[in-house]
Design brief:
317 residues; alpha/beta; 39% helix
Length: 317
Amino acid sequence: MTLDDLRVFVAVCDAGSLSAVARDLGCTQSAVSQRVKRLEREAGIGLVERRPRGVAPTQAGRILHRAASGSLGELDLALRRLADLRRGDGGTLRITTGATTVRHFMSAAVVAFRARHPHVDLEFQTENSGRRCCEAVADGTAELAWITIGPPVRGIEQHPVLELPWVLAVRRDDPLAARDHIEPGELAGGLSGIRHIRLPENSVSRMRLDGHLGRPGTGPGAAAAPASVADWDTAMLLAELGVGHAVVPDLPGRRGADHPDLRLIPVPGLPPLATGWAVRRWAALSPVAVEFAETVNASLGGSGPVRKSGHSPVHAH
């Protein structure tokens, strides 16, 4: 690792472009790229990632950039932090999620991961929509995001992990509580007395559900929505209180004993809702981020393909 290599690396991070630095230095783009690659070989971890327009530093790259653009006396500390990242023994991992994600999808994984990596700081950032989660990943505020899988987002990879079947949440003394299942057509207006608690505005789950049911709660004879909510847990709580009926995904980590007055009725005719990870590029994730994601995947029943939640029956479509 030479001072010239570090100066070139800092210039690339500042300019966001290999070709611009090459022009400034009067050399070829290949020469600039070779200097960055030499640093990556010595650090043992990727420092920059290519984007549609130029390049940007990875988490490890940002650590080295901050140190190299300041006092060279900080380099020893930076190199130790890079070694920690490579081994997964230190650093900060930022994950952006919805308000109830950790409780339902990650609690067991957090415990297992912390036992293996007590020096890694896990920083959870709460956002109120999948779009905001993707924005946090895109601008580098977070490395991982757990989202409801939705339409393609430019510059973001979506990796499905788990499929959630839909259920109708009702109070146990509701006339519908005796049903063993509900058909989508009944929810779309075929049953009188359904009072739909509306899912979060602009959410993927709301968009999917409205698409399947033709905007529930607005069909012929349907009552006005008694409430709108910001998350699935609140929808189920309001249903348990008898405020209305909530069509929600059946969430992992939910214990029936905690909700004695709630009944969840399967809606097998609705396609399940996929949830999983959003990242800029899986191949560019830090080792600690990959291990955390894989720990979550394993805790939910698998490490690769989409898995179905086992809380309610799921029928093939």
